[in-house]
Fold:
Amino acid sequence: MDVAFIIETIAKIVVILLIFSALAGLGTYFERKVLAFMQRRLGPMHVGPFGLLQVAADGIKLFTKEDIIPQNVVKPIFKIAPVITAATAFMASAAIPFWPQFTVMGYTVHPIVADINVGILYVLGVMAIGLYGPLLGGMASANKWSLISAARSAAIFISYEVITGLALLAPLMMVGSLSLVDINNYQAGGITNWIVWSQPVAFVLFWIAAFAETGRTPFHLVANDHEIIDGFGTEYSGMRWGLFFIGEYANMFFISFVIAIVFLGGFGDGTFAGAFQLILKVAFFFFFFLWTRAAWPDVRPDQLMWLCWKVLMPIAVLNVVVTGIVMMF
Amino acid sequence: MHHEEVFTDRNVSEHSAYYYVDIENYPVTGWDKFKQVVKRAAKGELFVGLWVVMREMIKFDIHTVQYPKEKLPIGPRYRAVHKLLRLWESGYERCIGCGLCEKICISDCIRMDTRIDENSRKEVTEYSINLGRCIFCGYCAEVCPELAIVHGGRYENGSEQRAHFVIKDDMLTPLDLLTAGEQSEYPGFGAIIPGSDASVKKTPLAY
Structure:
């Protein structure tokens, strides 16, 4: 392992961390603006032009707030929980190819931290560990709302892991590789080669499950304001709460990348146009997260479980079986 | 044509004026619930919702009032912090010190002091309203025979002390503003209705 490789990897990690931390902040800005426009409001307008510096103001506020540890909490777990959420979100990004490889001054850069051969499995696995953020934070908070939220997060995340896994199984059977780069190259032939055309059911299932995995609005039961205050975040303030937030928004971006790469052709053949299209696809999926939040109501926890185990999982299993039969003949 | 509502029969519910809203029974079995979900999903209700919010975003018909920069007009009968007005011609205070406002004030927050000045005219030396007690009912403005105390439209009250808004000097129209024609005849609470001169009837003298 030579020095250049280590330096390059560290540089990539720093760049990804910086870009996606900033994007998480900007994500909150876009969310507030899009929600506002859809509700005939203006959203943040006062800090900077069109309220753009609101992100900076929020950041300063979060950083300088007092770090409150309430009285009866389990201190070490309470303190580590937000770090788990944020860290696992960023760890999951290690196996995602954000951009096709490009050459700068004769040096070929692969914009992926680690092109491991079990890429998608690693991404989903680490994202699943992110469950421990809300779970531990909620259980350690000595607050009943947080406890309910912790129970819900455990139930929802574990249930929908089944859907994500089964939904991805069918495309993976077709591609024959778990590496996201391989999955992308499988669809490099253009729009007709996209897996979404051959696996539309898996696409929709994975998309639905992505809402549960990121805890976004139709399935926003983990921190549902009108039922359980802020759920696991109730007792958190300042930067610890901010870490939960960064983790959630980074997760939204990463899951958008995964959907775009697995089902919608990713960056295609690796030209600049393909890379630009990937950005557009990710932007659409991120926008859709905000869009549904403005349009759709939340479901009840029992409805969510019902949907998962009695509707989506049988469909996912059927999809895998049908895919297998079609591939066999 | 003169329309007269017939009220001979008040038992409207018996003659199908009321009807039950058509609500299906809630599904009981799992299969019925599944069918309901499929029916609702196939109806595209979710996409109608998505379209509605997208339509509003595209129309960009924003209703926000950016408050410190923009202000909504308030009604002329709005009852904000009081004002004391002056006579247009002479610049004297309109208040004649009759004390009716002090008397009628139901939260007992008006305090005035008067004396007889050199011209044998009643002069108001002190006039203050305790805004901590005032409920802005408007009785003082209504009872005032001289249109001297009225409710203004100033609702942005930021100060270190409430008393700053209701010292007599603050409420009274300053003389320079009066000569500049800045005192507006208050059209709101307790004021004379526009055109009321025309509706004044002369008191018949010969009974």
About this structure: The CA atoms of residues 82 and 244 of chain A lie 5 Å apart. Chain A has 13 helices and two strands. The beta strands of chain A are 102-104, 107-109. Chain A touches chain B at residues 34, 37-42, 45, 291-292, 294-296, 306-307, 310-311 (CB under 8 Å).
